[in-house]
């Protein structure tokens, strides 16, 4: 039976049960437990929704979806840019025990069709903005029933009360953003969400009055985690459907936001003037890749409580996060591993690195996904011993603080020397002419590879001055051998640089 | 082997593994992970100790205890009134994998000897204040090695690094305070502490800058929980060795305390004047039995953020706790069950009560202890299906809020009517002449039992006026048939009324 397959997927992957530490534990549904609360659950583009109202909407949406025939364990593709609608849908699918498969709204139609087909979804739920895609996907996949949804719509006749939550059940399948290679669907369980929410709260603190602002896409793990954490904490998620620096800043300046999730590119744009953020803002959580040190230093100098985190889809967001009190003393570190998560550094021979030794970051813990969809053999990434090989390069210092250098596949080896693009990018970004920078490798007859850079610049811009600026701060083999200026750097929906694409330009 | 016995005790008790939900999961030692932090870990009677310093003291104390021959799994009796010394000892024993058995410092020598013997301790650690007891216990139990400890003392030669923590291991055995019957030793695991700390944080909030003040005895579960939570959160515990209202209030008025644990008797004494508590004080956590409504109302009227909780030793403190935002709208309720805990109400025929139906409170969840020391058969209290029968009487309303009426054994049945002493006490306490009140049952030839009261009063006091005050608010069968005035009501070390003792007075 299909419905049992997803639920049992975990056993197929984790023979030793090391995935989450929790197996058959059940808890009361998180949202349902809060259904009598009149406090803020979600604010969407300025519109407040209380827990009572959210729970009512979710219960009647779940009843409606049940009438449509959505069943327990079924994988339902969700293609929505509308944050409130996405949240209602996600929780309603949980009420039904169905699995949410968020489709990246920025994918090409081909990619969407591939993903809906790969995950064997029978049902696709879209918002009005994706009517074209809805019709096109149905044409290509005739067995898929696709429904256009809206926040206000005819709902199910009877109220729907959810079962308790089984922590080992799969809540969603999120395809890795796939800056290279074919995307894989990470199976995120309720236990992953609970462990992740708890570990984040223990590191960053949590108040019942918290309001967490984000414009990160909800179809990525960082955005979805804000929704799930809020429901587990009983706090408010403040959603903006797309990042607009003026709107984001304006919302922050209202003074009630306590937490905000950003990536370096969005933080950079928000920091582009002399605004002072309100005192209630406790944490600016910076994820999505190694952060440029100049940006961090600028934030610290201006009293912005920026806290670097290292996370990934397979670990349901955060793995390590700096403590707010350590922001000034540990610039550039992503902090110690979160409670219950373990990080180790392994060199190319498969041996543990000593403190400060650079190697691959490998992780283990209860936030690690139960495996990949459709992969029975997991010898590679999600290893049998419970360690996940991230493909990221970094080191742990003597006190267990993690420093992330780069993606291993982004590493440039030039004449036998390692060049970490993130380090070169950080130097480029300190130059007043440079707005954005990406460093990639170009094949070279003499050195194997040499670093080259793609830049977005402010006028006026003097190439020779910039290169001499770099030579003053970097070893010669690290200085970019070619500069390419563009209007805006290509990024995926999560704000990550698309280096694969840029490599093709050289 | 002794050391394996304690660790396996859980299996003997919980054949279905329903105890904690976590079985063999390991986490890095909580204190050891914080050993590089210079933030406040403990303030003891005004003396600050940072995490770095605490970890150093604990590591060398653990080395010292290892040299004395303390081994993994060994039960070590700890008789200390000195809070900092108690904390160092507790953490050092954890570093060794030994089990802490806190001895209630207010027990008679006979009771102490019985407990040290019952738990089969080979080692007893005392502070200087308990030198007389140390010598006397050794005389009675010749196989026990007893050591006098101090904060400053010769320590072990080498630094001691702890193993990771196995969440199913027993951390401590706390004997139930035993207001009636023979005490039983509740086996509290690391998993209990972790689940408890997490659930408390999710209900009350937690900030890395929190400072939790308490003068509750550390040998009881409420005091020990403050120590364990602080280490799990990485926040500060502010300890006073005994409750003194002036010292307690003075410390609160310094303005940095965010949380404080109290019982009704201590809160009543603190509230005895017109002090305004600082804004940083987020939660006054009120436990130790049903709280008198007049006290709650007085706190709310004065803006004191009092939050009622229902807890017990076997559940490692809190089971249900009100949310801070619900304080005014749910006066008298102990709130919904904490995250992952479940509460049900069962009547005398063993059937579930409907909402608002009064019956025994039964609980289940990951904070529930692994069983009782030396009890292989657990058909009674810790039932095989994972439900703990608390012996407390209460009800859940339609929205899952718990109202605790009284201990079942304190219930008075008078002429076929139930009289809840807590209800009568609450009325007595609203009278301006009454400082403290306890209502117990006295045998009666006509009614079986009748309610009678023990009072501590303010002068002037008019018995007839007080009784007519009661008659105006209570049904006749609930009005005390006899009043006994004393200087101060007898309480155990946790501040609970010793009703067993008072019953003998009539």
UniProtKB/TrEMBL annotation, chains A, B:
The keyword Transmembrane does not apply. Pathway: Quinol/quinone metabolism; menaquinone biosynthesis; Quinol/quinone metabolism; 1,4-dihydroxy-2-naphthoate biosynthesis; 1,4-dihydroxy-2-naphthoate from chorismate: step 5/7. The keyword Ligase applies. Keywords: ATP-binding, Ligase, Menaquinone biosynthesis, Nucleotide-binding. It holds the Pfam family AMP-binding_C. Its EC number is 6.2.1.26. One of its GO terms (molecular function) is ATP binding. It catalyses: 2-succinylbenzoate + ATP + CoA = 2-succinylbenzoyl-CoA + AMP + diphosphate. Residues 34-373 form the AMP-dependent synthetase/ligase domain. One of its GO terms (biological process) is menaquinone biosynthetic process. Transmembrane segments: none annotated. Residues 423-496 form the AMP-binding enzyme C-terminal domain. InterPro entries: AMP-bd_C, AMP-bd_C_sf, AMP-binding_CS, AMP-dep_synth/lig_dom, ANL_N_sf, ATP-dep_AMP-bd_enzyme, MenE. It is an enzyme of class 6 (ligase). Belongs to the ATP-dependent AMP-binding enzyme family. MenE subfamily. Converts 2-succinylbenzoate (OSB) to 2-succinylbenzoyl-CoA (OSB-CoA). NCBIfam families: menE. PANTHER family: LONG-CHAIN-FATTY-ACID--COA LIGASE, NONRIBOSOMAL PEPTIDE SYNTHASE PES1 (EUROFUNG)-RELATED. HAMAP family: MenE. This is 2-succinylbenzoate--CoA ligase. It comes from Ferroacidibacillus organovorans.
